[in-house]
Amino acid sequence: MTPKAPRKLDNSHNILANAIQNVIEANDAEEMFLRILSAAQTLTAAEGASIYLLDHHRKVLRMTASTNLSPEKFYQFDLPLGTGITGWVAANDESANIGDMSQDPRFFDTTDHQTGFHTRGYLCVPLTTGAKVIGTVQVLNKINGHQFSEDDQSLLECFGSLVALAIKKNQLHETEIEKHRLDSELKLAEEFQKRLLPTDMQQPENYLLAGTNSTARQISGDYYDWLFCNNKCNLVIADVSGKGPAAGIWMSALSNIIRYEFSKGADILSSIPEIDLHFAKQFPRGVFITGIFAELIGNTLTLSNAGHNPLLVVRNNGSHELYPSQGIPLGILPSLARPTMTLSLHEGDTVVFYTDGVTEARSEEGLMFGEARLIASAVKHRKLAPDKIIGRLFAEIHSFRGTAEQSDDITVMILQRQSIAS
């Protein structure tokens, strides 16, 4: 019996191998998608091709590449998952090979109406990785006018399964690049923000000052500062509503405005109306700033509390007083008058400025640290220097939280009057 000659491989397999290699060697996503379209057309002898990728969060297929449309028009052809034949393919992870689109009830003809392209034959296959559909690739109208064959479908399915891996790899690579870029930008923003916090360690005569900020995220919406102007020590602590980069931007704006006002010789209390009006014009709905703005001259502390946490004063003998807000936050109603209050400070008195990240720090059980624990800590450690008091307070908050995540920025600034040498 004469042995059969070995079967000659169909040339389409070579075309498929070359097409896949060509896609893999693309330099970037845009080039990769163009090569996928070109290969899909070549493999199936089609007039056109397009790619949709699935937005899993929105359950929408987004046109990503097309031979018949310019990229600026892609957004017009988003398809809800399950809509049209493309949406059906993605929803069912099953190919569709249609000879006459006008006879298929799933045909979503909006695209044809908007592009002027007349779709007759249509072959669409899912792009699947790890049993998860990430999109579809479809070819339109066989050049010879016939329906796409079973061989065409098999080739496109094989091509699609391998292309899906290339797309997924590219997505992961771009996600990693974007993550590194964002991390780098956040790091720069974080370094910039740190420069806005006090760097001049000048101390008021007969006083010690210290402050610390711990961010819940890389960028903080809290702010504290002290600056000397016109023989006064100007102090501020503030908290922008919200967290993260958006709050950090407004915090930076507040810091820059205050320092600009000081550069002109203004003091903190006289600057509040102008700052309030500025932010009222700029803030989006729901954004505001709470804060305490104070001036220290000798043993007198004059302050305005704009919707912020109460000011805590611990006296040398261990008694304490809380001075609550008498005004609303900045950026809401700048026409309202802002009352001030005046305190007398004596030797050994300690003034604690803090943001709500202190009192609202939560334990693993969901309990809040609260004012009582803050007061107890400040009273217990009142004989220590301000930086030591802050260190003990932060240690107690950390111990109280346990494994619970820090949910808000924590900022503390402490002013302490020292003994006056005789």
Please supply descriptive tags for the structure shown above.
5-stranded antiparallel β-sheet; 6-stranded antiparallel β-sheet; 422 residues; disordered N terminus; alpha+beta
Descriptive report:
The chain has helices spanning 11-24, 29-44, 84-92, 110-115, 150-196, 244-263, 268-282, 356-359, 370-380, 386-401, and strands at 46-55, 60-66, 79-80, 96-98, 122-129, 132-142, 207-214, 222-229, 232-240, 289-297, 300-306, 311-314, 320-323, 341-344, 350-354, 410-417. The longest helix is centred in the middle third of the chain and has 47 residues, at 150-196. The chain is built from 10 helices and 16 strands. It is elongated and about 100 Å long. The strands form 3 sheets. A 6-stranded antiparallel beta sheet has the order 3-2-1-6-5-4, with helices on both faces. A 5-stranded antiparallel beta sheet has the order 7-16-15-12-13. The termini are far apart. 37% of the residues lie in helices and 25% in strands. It has 422 residues and is of the alpha+beta class. A hairpin with a 2-residue loop joins strand 10 and strand 11.
